[in-house]
Amino acid sequence: MKNLFDISGKTAIVTGGSSGIGAMIAQGFVENGVKTYICARKPGPLMAKAEELSKLGECVAIPADLSTVEGIEKVVAEVSAKEDHIDILINNAGANWAEPIDTFPEAAWDKVMNINIKSIFFMTQKCLPLLRKNATAEDPARVINTASVHGFENPGLPTYAYSASKSGVIHLTKHLATDLASSHINVNGIAPGYFVSKMTAGIASDKAFEQEVISRIPRGRPGDMEDMAGTAIYLVSRASAWLDGHTIVLDGGQIA
Length: 256
Ligand SMILES: NC(=O)c1ccc[n+]([C@@H]2O[C@H](COP(=O)([O-])OP(=O)(O)OC[C@H]3O[C@@H](n4cnc5c(N)ncnc54)[C@H](OP(=O)(O)O)[C@@H]3O)[C@@H](O)[C@H]2O)c1
Known about the structure:
By secondary structure, the chain is an alpha/beta fold.
């Protein structure tokens, strides 16, 4: 029982691993002996993060736009050239857009939907051969999708595509889990509350607004690296092998 959370020796892909929540998960994996591929569009910050994490373990950067199937296929081809399997896929890359309902543009709707939900389906689809390869009933492969508390409730912000996409992530997680269980691939989700990141920089930079956001969190603080890495490590370890199709709300008690 002492090795329930041991994930060393596994191989993972973390999308959106250059920043914020993806970087927190990637660091947790690398520090715990997981060879971790990180992907994002901007090569500069991605390479810098891979270099930083490579001082702690194995981390490889693959730049790509995952909102297109072409970008997804590029990542899968590059990983397949180096690995005969992966154990873990973290579908985390995401974007948001806030605009009043009367002017919310079609291009913003498509941008958010393409990265927040379409990419989760096609990234999972294209990674299936790599995920199936070493997956067994005792040690299933894992797919973790990043949802959001805003997939459960109205965020109180004009982020229509975002909240709809995140509800979709929670449902797609259930659908994929039940369909992929026979391939020994578990699919679960994490629905974060407030974590400081590039996406939430607008909250962190406005101290009064941030205090208001934190006042709605019973634990009284934003989530941090250990909170996120701890939940991700649980979800890819032996400890959670019988958890399938669920989204863990990681929000300091906010939506409870
Ligand atoms: N922070 C929070 O409080 C919070 C709460 C709930 C849910 N989430 C979710 O957590 C996930 C990570 O967000 P974050 O807060 O960590 O934000 P972040 O710091 O902005 O990170 C987003 C990551 O996704 C990458 N990305 C965005 N569009 C991409 C694309 N088209 N192709 C490939 N990579 C792309 C970004 O890199 P590039 O820009 O270089 O592509 C970056 O690495 C998102 O799904 C978000 O919805 C965050």
